[in-house]
Amino acid sequence: MRQPKILTTLKTYDTQQFAADLIAGITVAMVALPLSLAIAIASGADPGQGLITAIVAGFLISALGGSRVQIGGPTGAFIVVVFGVIAEHGYDGLVLATLMAGVLLLLAGQLRAGNLIAYIPEAVVNGFTIGIAIIIATSQLKDILGLTVDHDPADFLEKIPVLWGARNSFSAPAFLIGGLALALIVLLRRLAPRFPGLIVAVGIGSLAVTALSLPVDTLGSRFGALPQSLPMPSLPEISVARMLELFPSALVIAFLAGVESLLSAMVADRMIDGNHRPNAELTAQGAANIGSALFGGLPATGAIARTATNVRAGGKTPVAGLIHAVAILLMMMLAAPLAGYLAMPALAAILLITAWNMSEPHKWPEYARGRRSDLALLLLTMVLTVVIDLTVAIGVGVSIGLALRLSRRRSVESDWTPPDR
């Protein structure tokens, strides 16, 4: 079934549900605002493009999606791919790749491919997710330690020596601000999990930089002013040669968007005892990525952390996601100049927490107790993601994982016998 969930929920919608959605939507917007900025920066894009993605894609995912409470926008899963595409093909290349990925996701939704997620080995998903988390955390060391580097390479094996070589430029004020923001995020999550602790932590850290005139980079000093309105939609440069060149990147973006959104919808189902529509979700992801690309935004998908925040804040229907997108738009229009004071180490602290949560350390003992083959597949996928390339990691991991699954089924269930020759 590809019908958007919002059409079902609006049949019985009332003022009580709207009140709950309003509070939840504003709460999620307070979380999504600094996170969208930080993800865009880590991806090698301008911070304003993160906000554009959260607004346009976030609105479309809620309006067209198959989950009652899914919240969409830019996520950490894309950072590695986006950074690589921008470095190799420029930002216009990323926009075209995102547009192509959106078309692929639309086709996947129309072909009812939503249930195929069951065939992707869980060890592969866990492996590349942990690998991405390692890369994200490493990419934030420069800002949280206040290091000065002439060139910050994308490759993990090249980045580590560069960071080590810049160790003498360590900035104590930057480290203290980053540590303060990190401690506040952790503390507020434990004491008041429904409270938008991210924006409070970043705000307090940034206020300390301004009040004490600390020599710490801010969003404004590094990137200039944020946009205060959405740009006019436009198409990137399109040619057959360019599309062929970017097709592998578009495939990876579409794969990540599909897997992440469906995983997030499954998590949401467990939290609300619901039942999402996977093909409607894929269709929504396609429309969202096309929309984001037309406005010059980043790839987008369902965000597990923001979706969970929405549920905990009392969100009942997709209207909460629509309100979240509108709230971010209003904040961009009214408070963009204030965002220029946000301290870079405080934003880096957000992504360090994001990386830690992505890696799901509470599940590591479970992985270690599982099948040896699954653990080996997880570690292989993780290492390939970090050391070589996410595309290679997914391709190798899925191939080996499906082969392992096939061999297990044959060893247990198959009555096939070799032909007598």
Automatic annotation (TrEMBL):
<protein>
    <submittedName>
        <fullName>Sulfate permease, SulP family</fullName>
    </submittedName>
</protein>
<feature type="transmembrane region" description="Helical">
    <location>
        <begin position="93"/>
        <end position="111"/>
    </location>
</feature>
<keyword id="KW-0472">Membrane</keyword>
<feature type="transmembrane region" description="Helical">
    <location>
        <begin position="322"/>
        <end position="355"/>
    </location>
</feature>
<feature type="transmembrane region" description="Helical">
    <location>
        <begin position="48"/>
        <end position="64"/>
    </location>
</feature>
<dbReference type="InterPro" id="IPR001902">
    <property type="entry name" value="SLC26A/SulP_fam"/>
</dbReference>
<dbReference type="GO" id="GO:0055085">
    <property type="term" value="P:transmembrane transport"/>
</dbReference>
<dbReference type="GO" id="GO:0016020">
    <property type="term" value="C:membrane"/>
</dbReference>
<keyword id="KW-0812">Transmembrane</keyword>
<feature type="transmembrane region" description="Helical">
    <location>
        <begin position="195"/>
        <end position="216"/>
    </location>
</feature>
<feature type="transmembrane region" description="Helical">
    <location>
        <begin position="21"/>
        <end position="42"/>
    </location>
</feature>
<feature type="domain" description="SLC26A/SulP transporter">
    <location>
        <begin position="18"/>
        <end position="380"/>
    </location>
</feature>
<dbReference type="Pfam" id="PF00916">
    <property type="entry name" value="Sulfate_transp"/>
</dbReference>
<feature type="transmembrane region" description="Helical">
    <location>
        <begin position="170"/>
        <end position="188"/>
    </location>
</feature>
<keyword id="KW-1133">Transmembrane helix</keyword>
<feature type="transmembrane region" description="Helical">
    <location>
        <begin position="123"/>
        <end position="141"/>
    </location>
</feature>
<feature type="transmembrane region" description="Helical">
    <location>
        <begin position="71"/>
        <end position="87"/>
    </location>
</feature>
<dbReference type="InterPro" id="IPR011547">
    <property type="entry name" value="SLC26A/SulP_dom"/>
</dbReference>
<feature type="transmembrane region" description="Helical">
    <location>
        <begin position="375"/>
        <end position="404"/>
    </location>
</feature>
<feature type="transmembrane region" description="Helical">
    <location>
        <begin position="246"/>
        <end position="268"/>
    </location>
</feature>
